[in-house]
Amino acid sequence: MAGLTGHPVLEIGDKFEELQNNIFNNNKNKEVIDKAGLVVKGEENSNNNNNNQGGERDMAPPTSNSLHRSGSRPQLDLSKAAIQGNSEERDPTILLPNQSDDISHFALDIGGSLIKLVYFSRHEGQSIDDKRKKTVKEISNGSRRSYPILGGRLHFVKFETSKLNECLDFISSKQLHNGRIDSHYWNSEAPNKENAVIKATGGGAYKFADLFKERLGVSIDKEDEMDCLVAGANFLLKAIRHEAFTHMEGHKEFVQIDHNDLFPYLLVNVGSGVSMIKVDGDGKFQRVSGTNVGGGTYWGLGRLLTKCNSFDELLELSQRGDNRTIDMLVGDIYGGMDYSKIGLSASTIASSFGKAISDKKELEDHRPEDISLSLLRMISYNIGQISYLNALRFGLKRIFFGGFFIRGHAYTMDTISFAVHFWSQGQAQAMFLRHEGFLGALGAFMSYEKLGLDDLMVHQLVERFPMGAPYTGGKIHGPPLGNLNEKISWMEKFVLKGTEITAPVPMAPPGTTGLGGFEVPSSKGGTLRSDASALNVGVLHLVPTLEVFPLLANPKMYEPNTIDLSDHCELEYWFTVLSEHLPDLVDKAVASEGGTDDAKRRGDAFARAFSAHLARLMEEPAAYGKLGLANLLELREECLREFQFLDAYRSIKQRENEVSLAVLPDLLMELDRMDEEARLLTLIEGVLAANIFDWGSRACVDLYHKGTIIDIYRMSRNKMQRPWRVDDFDLFRERMLGSEGKKPRPHKRALLFVDNSGADVVLGMLPLARELLRRGTEVVLVANSLPALNDVTAMELPDIVAEAAKHCDILRRAAEAGGLLVDAMTNTLDGSKENCSSVPLMVVENGCGSPCIDLRQVSSELASAAKHADLLAMVKNQRLAEKLIKGEIYDCVCRYEPAS
Ligand SMILES: Nc1ncnc2c1ncn2[C@@H]1O[C@H](COP(=O)(O)OP(=O)(O)O)[C@@H](O)[C@H]1O
Ligand SMILES: CC(C)(COP(=O)(O)O)[C@@H](O)C(=O)NCCC(=O)O
Ligand SMILES: [Mn+2]
Q1: Model pLDDT, residue 679
Q2: Which residues fall in a compositionally biased region of kind Polar residues (predicted)?
């Protein structure tokens, strides 16, 4: 644990324009690191970074709870109700007002080789926790906005076109054609199957239309393939973080493309055949070229020549191939010499398969590995070269390659990139898309009118990687996992095959040649994962209620990941931390569900699933998009939820809250005895002290045995000797209490971002909130929407506040004014309370269910609250303190940035 530190930090600022902090809400590896709060100032980084992982696949909806449980970005409908101004309305989002019978939840792209299916599942209905309704109403006031987009999830699946039946079975089994998913109707009226129309593109939309009518009773609405490709590509490039990346010499780099600087570009879709499209805008494009030498050529010729049974097998063969045995090199022609005058090295391929003519070898005499590699290089170079020529023709600098020929295969991408780079002398750049083969299907999906999908923005989409999605068994897809039980069974089988799926495919570097004077692409082809697991495509969650935090000074530069795990040392470190912590977490999770056999089985499946993710990411850190520590921690929470551990720390949190609440009255008395200045300082120290002690961690539990919570709290508070590492207390005090000649200037509204349950919130944050309230500042407590380790959630806060309010008039009046004490209000309503002049104490959820907050995607509730806020205090923690604030463990940061 050397070098690993935690720092309590209190950041208080009223200079919102300058807020571009990374908020590391709390990374919690309880047994491993000392936990404390801190703030980390944003590292300026032009690459946005957020890949959200984990998540669910369509499973039976979890148990009743007013919070939606499916994602770290819970799709709470809070804002909707408020926005619609009618809390009675359960599901005010009217997506397709005039349609009831011709809606489908999926679209198809039926190509020459593969069928791509994109389907939508809707979020189940959500309601607002009663106690918070008033807050939500109050806060959202004036921020009316209607959301035309329905929240839900987009799933991506593919099948071989030759196995159309599998696809039809899949559609039937999921009841996609009946307009329902997971028993949730798209809208209230049961759809009329007879009139069902589904959008489809690709040649198969024409070829198989009758079959769809016959088998599923649905009509196909044909969408133009090129229209769809372009619509899909534009959508992905605008709306998905880390969609595009470059791949050169084995190095993958995500590229964030500025929306305003996207066009024009060349789109090269490498399917069975290749289409090249110059794209100038949404719906503005021209198919400028194509080639019949494409994916079908590689797979078709390859199959004939190698007798391979699957595309992947062929691709895998290539990784062990040496194409020099079959390609004719410049050196073969020039007696081992370069043809330097025209820039061709001896190792350049002069003629693909050229040696097959001169050699007296038959097909059987050639290694299938060599044939496959030679073929792959031939086709990839050719595509790269023709693409470059077309980019040159129209002066295009960027070429995006899509289509399933790419298949996320490092060597293929390197080869294409090499060709583009070489021929354009670095002027043009090849880029690839994570949803490579799904462009057409997505485009077809988006062509459903009134879906509002094209209005979706980056911050409303969250991608997750549930076990079912990337790891679904089978060749191309597995049997659809109908419910959690099937998923667990699948995980149990998975572990048997686990090594096969997670271990790299051994391969020798192909010592092969380059072309046109450039040397061999150095990427060795890397690991070719089984097709299912190599789908670097998760489930896309559409969450229309998410917003960019309005006080972010520069959302483009904001980077929520303070720790970038593309640094291998970091990754390894965290991998170890998380792996070591896993058994304990599983114990807690299982205990939280009553320790039943079912819970144990789920716990086991969770451990397997999370380990598989970790193994996958160790092997390929960018597998799910750019990876940061925040993503990894979120993945763990998601994975817990996937196996229906809704709140692993439930009882621990309860105990901590109880213990802390029991000593709160003493603490409040102590505070009230102090003079103003001493009290303010003590409060700040208290916030820092309470955040240091993390009652979920073993170290703290030990401590807790050694003394009472209040003793420990006081002790650590006393250790907070000023000056702190960052110490703006005097400035803050001046604003709060005034100084000679200067009056105190109370803030209008404060947002307090709360972190842990127990001492942290009860002894640290609530007393601070109370002081602010006392001074006439409205306080909004901002908490997680869903449980994540021992974080306190927005749902839990009203009860905690109610309990605290029993001992404190200020809190009670404020909580009543904020509508948190619903019962108290109705019980003691005497008219005067209703109009009580007390400033309100409110609670909002932050829209997140992860230990780390990403201010680019917060609940609309929080966004609204922030618009009227005047002071912002955040309590967070960080780990590598010396890295981030160049400090030591338990250093305190109290940063106050007054408005200029
Ligand atoms: N599992 C697979 N089965 C068949 N072909 C695959 C597979 N994975 C990748 N491919 C490659 O992808 C190509 C199909 O790409 P795709 O974009 O789906 O085109 P199409 O629309 O023509 O079906 C195939 O010709 C082959 O080269
Ligand atoms: C005909 C196609 C548009 C069909 O799309 P695909 O199924 O290959 O994805 C495509 O195969 C293609 O563009 N072929 C190349 C034809 C040419 O321009 O030479
Ligand atoms: Mn296609």
Answers
A1: 96
A2: 62-73
Position 666 pLDDT exceeds 50: yes
Closest CA to 90 of 131, 140, 125, 50: 125
Ligand 1 and 245: CB distance under 6 A: no
Query: Is residue 198 a contact partner of residue 106, using CB atoms and an 8 Å limit?
Result: yes
Q: What is the CATH number of domain 255-433+514-528?
A: 3.30.420.40
Whole-number Å distance between alpha carbons of 547 and 524? 42
Q: Quote the ligand 2 centre to 272 CA distance (angstroms).
A: 7
Architecture in CATH for domain 77-243+437-466+538-544: 2-Layer Sandwich (3.30)
Residue 890: is its pLDDT beyond 70?
A: no
Mean pLDDT, residues 593-612 taken together: 92
Give the count of alpha carbons within 13 A of 314, CB side only.
26
* The predicted structure's pLDDT at residue 842: 94
For residues 521-559, one letter each, b for 16 or more C-beta atoms within 10 angstroms of the residue's C-beta and e for the rest, the string is bebbbbbbbbbbbbbbbbbbbbbbbbbbbbbbeeeeebb
Judged on CB neighbours under 10 Å (0-12, 13-18, 19+), 360 is exposed
Handedness of CA 875, 877, 883, 888 (dihedral sign): positive
From 114, 272, 382, 406, the mutation candidate for ligand 2 (largest count of ligand atoms within 8 A of CB) is: 272
Are domains 77-243+437-466+538-544 and 255-433+514-528 of this chain identical in fold? yes
Residue 259 has a CB neighbour count (10 Å cut-off) of 13
CA distance 730 to 709: 29
Task: For residue 448, name the pLDDT band (cuts at 50, 70, 90).
Answer: confident
Using the mean position of ligand 3's atoms as its centre, give its distance from the Cα of residue 108 in Å: 10
CB of 448 closer than 8 Å to CB of 199: yes
* Contact indicator for 570, 104 with CB cutoff of 8 Å: no
Check residue 694 and give its pLDDT.
57
Angstrom distance (rounded) from CA 319 to CA 507: 6
% of residues, the chain, pLDDT over 90 = 43
Ligand 1 neighbour 299 (Cβ under 6 A): yes
**Alpha carbon 360 to chain centroid, angstroms:** 55
Residue 856 pLDDT more than 80? yes
Candidates 374, 314, 315, 321; CA nearest to 350 is: 374
Instruction: Flag whether pLDDT at 531 surpasses 90.
Output: no
Q: b/e per residue, 814-826, with b = 16+ CB within 10 A?
A: bbbbbbbbbebbe
Q: Which of 60, 10, 62, 5 is nearest to 33 (CA)?
A: 5
User: Which segments of 341-436 are extended strands (E)?
Assistant: 349-351, 398-402, 429-433
The complex scores an ipTM of 0.97
d(CA 548, CA 896): 23
Contacts of 610 (CB under 8 A, 6+ apart): 578, 582, 635, 636, 639
Kindly tell me if the per-residue pLDDT of 527 is higher than 70: no
Ligand 1 contacts CB of residue 696 (under 6 A): no
Does 480 sit behind a cis peptide bond, omega within 30 degrees of 0 on the bond before it? no
Please name which ligand lies nearest the alpha carbon of 401.
1
| Structure confidence at residue 874 as a pLDDT band (50, 70, 90) | low
CA 730/CA 898 separation, integer angstroms: 11
803, with CB counted inside 10 A (0-12, 13-18, 19+), is middle
Q: Exposure string (b/e) for 869-898, b if CB count within 10 Å is 16 or more?
A: bbbbbbbbbbbbbeebbebebbbbbbbbbe
Q: Contact 416/383 with Cβ under 8 angstroms? A: yes
> What length does the chain have?
900
The pLDDT-based confidence of 11 (bands split at 50, 70, 90) is low
Tell me which residue has its CA closest to atom 4 in ligand 2: 273
Q: Where are the domains of the chain?
A: 77-243+437-466+538-544, 255-433+514-528
Which neighbouring-strand residues pair with 266?
278, 399
